[in-house]
Amino acid sequence: MERDKLIFCYVMVAPALILTVGLGIYPMLASMVMSFQLYDLLQINAVGTPFVGFENYIAVFQDPRFVQTIVNTVLFTIIAVVVSIAMGLFLSQVINANFKGRAVLRTLVFVPWFVPPVVASAIWMWLLQTERSPINHALQSMGLIDTDIRFLTDPSTFGPFSIPMMAVAAVRVWNGLPVIIIFLLAGLQSIPKGLYEAAEIDGASIMQKFWFVTLPMLRPVMSVLLALLVMNGLGQFEINYIMTRGGPQNLTNIMAVYSYQQAFMFFRFDYAAAASGVILLMTSVVCIFYVRAQSKDTLR
């Protein structure tokens, strides 16, 4: 009986396992192997794919564009994660409260969840067009600006930041915010109300209850959410590629877009694989720290 139960469980898991191996693990391993080979499609018939060791990694790190994409990726991830967490904490608290019209507000907040990133990028590209942007029109009508803001094409920078980077990060935040709110809302609803009542009896203010009750109780959810957001940010692709193609002047280019460009524009699959290997390494570091932190919490 026990043996039949185990066989049934393995049969149920097998389709998902096969898909994971075929569409996830195998391509990842094949890409890692490719990163140590000369894999130039323009020369592959003549020279093949010889082993070159770390030459591809050295080549991409000697490319100033790739170094800039690393900086862009880290900045993009920090901006998206910080703003998403801050807005998620605020909106989840609002949605968790009891007030008239809460259902309508929840619907409006969760609308971006039903919009695929490709569609969201196309919508926001229209909203952020320099000449026809309704946002520019509204700002000019209120007298806040005199000339149109070039949201996606302004090459000027403010230290490491630029208007196009902030615009693309804002779209990423808008598109991913509902998932964050759901995580935090689930965490908020699991907090015992007695803790807030005890804090209120002790004379705690709203901010004190948030700082000493809400945040500590949301720590498990926040740690999972933070790890997922950082890994997703480091591997972000579609919004940056669709909206700006990495421009202007490489200001919004990130590592995943750089990898795509090397593979499908310059046919250097070896450089693309090396760039992807760097992404894998960075996300693996985040994953290791997360697993270690979770293991310590479990042992306590």
From TrEMBL:
Keywords attached to this Swiss-Prot or TrEMBL record, sorted alphabetically, are: Cell membrane, Membrane, Transmembrane, Transmembrane helix, Transport
* GO-annotated cellular components: plasma membrane
Q: Which domain of life is it from?
A: Bacteria
Transmembrane segments annotated in the record for this chain: 7-29, 70-91, 103-127, 161-188, 209-231, 271-291
Q: Does the keyword Repressor apply?
A: no
**What are the BP-aspect GO terms?**
transmembrane transport
Gene3D superfamilies referenced in this protein's UniProt entry, alphabetically? MetI-like
Q: Topology versus the membrane, per the UniProt entry?
A: Multi-pass membrane protein
Supply the InterPro entries for this chain.
MetI-like, MetI-like_sf
Q: Which family does it belong to?
A: Belongs to the binding-protein-dependent transport system permease family.
**Name of the protein:** Carbohydrate ABC transporter membrane protein 1, CUT1 family
UniProt source species: Pelagibacterium luteolum
Taxonomic classification:
Bacteria, Pseudomonadati, Pseudomonadota, Alphaproteobacteria, Hyphomicrobiales
